[in-house]
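To whoever is covering the structure queue this week,

Two jobs came back overnight. Logging them here so there's a record in the thread.

Job A:
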Amino acid sequence: MKNYNLLLFIGLGLLLFFYSRTDGKENVSADASSSMRAFDPTYNPDQSIADFLTYRALLTGQAKMAVTGSSVTKGSGSSHQSKTWRGIIQEKLRYTHKALRNLTISNYGHSGYTSVRLLEEEVTAPIISEKPDVLFIETSVINNHNKNVTIEETLESLVQLHKLYSEALPNTKIYFMSPNPCTENKFGPEINSLGYTFIDYVNATAEFIKDKGWAYFDTHGSMLEEMEKENIALPSTLKDGIHPNDKGYAIWGKVLSPYLVKKGTH
């Protein structure tokens, strides 16, 4: 009789244990499903970049983000990659949701490359292979200006970049951005051989991208606005007139960060 009672007690204990485990899994599953729905673009079409990355992380287990552009995207002028605008926003995004704690933003910046050269396979192939959820394209117009690429060629290269990545990566959200403001420097004259200033390239590409209805972040204008507000002299933010120093990249990261969590950025 004692053995029977012992067996009955053990059986009830095991039944309770397995029921608790199953019930717990259902609750976890329900919580995950509820969390994912909160970030699902189907239900939240005006979600932010951070929300979209969170959704992708919850859905696939890992969100992917990449940046491409010139040396100011690569991080030239900084003391460490963590001090670049890419490093700064990577750290910011990691703290927007626990699903992004291990987010790494891949850097495909190339020193000296114009927007035309960003179409070269050595640049595009690794990005396409990675299949990022979010891709930022810095327009590289610092180099377009200094290397006398025409405005027409510049705009056509942006069309080709958007077409290439839109077709190859249909699930990737694409964002264009201008480079940082610059001063007079050794890399090129204020007015190039085509009669254009650097600002001409910034303005022409900004207007063109907005007319196309593509997502765009005005790094150039946002940084100048922040510097004016904080009474910061532009030369003090640059290592050599073109490449930001740590101070310049900190301002870039500061003005870009709110854009990442702003609703309706795409």
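Job B:
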Amino acid sequence: MTKFGDFAPLCHQVPSYPWCNLFYRQLQHRDPTALTNLSSDATSAPVGINPECGIPRVGHDSSLANIANIVACGLSILVTLLLVFWTNRRRAAVGRVEFQIFLVLYFLTIPFQLISTGSFLEQGTTALTVITAIHAGLVTATFWALLGNAIVSTQVVEDGTMSSLVPFHFFVVAFFAATTYISLDVGFSFTTVFQSTPPASQNSIALFVLTSIWPAAAAILYLVIMTYVVLGMLNEVRPMWYYVLAAILFVLSQLDYFLLSKVICKGANSKIDGSFVATILETAAVAVLYFAWRSITEESWEEDIYYPR
């Protein structure tokens, strides 16, 4: 029976689900007999735990690694760098520093995603476990930065000041540190607190909440707060369509990842999966958020000349 916090169904059904790397390491040391079929040989095992379909590690069965997602990640890196550059140019815009931090954090998640899901490194290795743990920490910190931007947009505290930046940075560090430590503990079993019982269930309530519940909750809260800011405070309608479009793109990325990825994997004979589509849609959502932010702060800019006080 599946319990709350069980990763076993996800690691079995969803190709390239990165947090499974942590449980692979744990199972190797606690219950290696639970690793069967595609996961039985760590040198060629794809991302996942006994997955129904997975991309073999590069160099095995003519595998080119998760090549489609590698290309998507490369394009996402370029797009995100461009967004960071554009954001930096709008020096008078409200929430510029906070939004730029969000973009930088999202940018950092991309190379870690590329490695943790790319079928480059051997399953169960220290390197893959550490990279996956850092990836998890960056993801939760990024979603805090997203929610933090919504809070800053309400102007409860003045953006760009110490009263805004100190708590903003504190929670970025807190989410990153807490999630990274928990992820490392799941993978390396430093303590028994985050160990799965039984090991085959791949259960970790803390990790599940941080990597699944928290991102969804942060995204929903962000949309609710920005709806209030745009419709209630600014009394505008046009910018709201950007936020609606970003939400649709994000939801579609998750539907693709969790529902269609296995279908694409099987249809492509384990050469690619749906992770590349999810990456493209997520980056598109971030780009739309930039244009949404731009649309509600444009009157704060001086496009050609900036007059300091």
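Note for Job B: The chain has one domain: 8-299.

Please reply-all if you pick these up so we don't duplicate work.
Q.
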